[in-house]
């Protein structure tokens, strides 16, 4: 922090502190203390870019709004705080960037790149499910929210290549025959994971995916 404040005015630390205080009223899970450093640094350079006329489009804005709704709400509140403190009015692109910082702070890591990878992974898996079943998700439904949450943790397990779920061959055989269409979809997901990440999926992981996918797709179809 001392090193950071040699380059960044204290005002930006105060802005970050106010945003984090608001975030803690919205996020029930633990938030890494690293967010104070990363957010202070991010806001300072965002303002620096703004003053230079260097506006960066957030290509993950849609994903941030859909997959991290609470964090995006924090990002929008952050824009109000920044405007109130220094008079700069950022677009919602910046709210999306801040949302991803808070999403990252809940994964016990300090690399925003990991959160971006997780977001892309989830987006790709949802795309596979969507086109396999030929449907549009009800993104406000409880089942959709549970699926997205499961996919986030699934992505973390794939990217870290550890903590895979213990196999359950009995349930694997059951869901393979009971939920045929969902199982076919999971086999496509397995192929995507193997080709894209060089990782294998345990039978237990496939069981969870089948059950989540069957639940969300059967509710959509009905």
TrEMBL record:
<feature type="domain" description="PRD">
    <location>
        <begin position="7"/>
        <end position="112"/>
    </location>
</feature>
<dbReference type="Pfam" id="PF00874">
    <property type="entry name" value="PRD"/>
</dbReference>
<keyword id="KW-0677">Repeat</keyword>
<protein>
    <submittedName>
        <fullName>Beta-glucoside operon transcriptional antiterminator</fullName>
    </submittedName>
</protein>
<dbReference type="InterPro" id="IPR011608">
    <property type="entry name" value="PRD"/>
</dbReference>
<feature type="domain" description="PRD">
    <location>
        <begin position="113"/>
        <end position="222"/>
    </location>
</feature>
<dbReference type="InterPro" id="IPR050661">
    <property type="entry name" value="BglG_antiterminators"/>
</dbReference>
<dbReference type="InterPro" id="IPR036634">
    <property type="entry name" value="PRD_sf"/>
</dbReference>
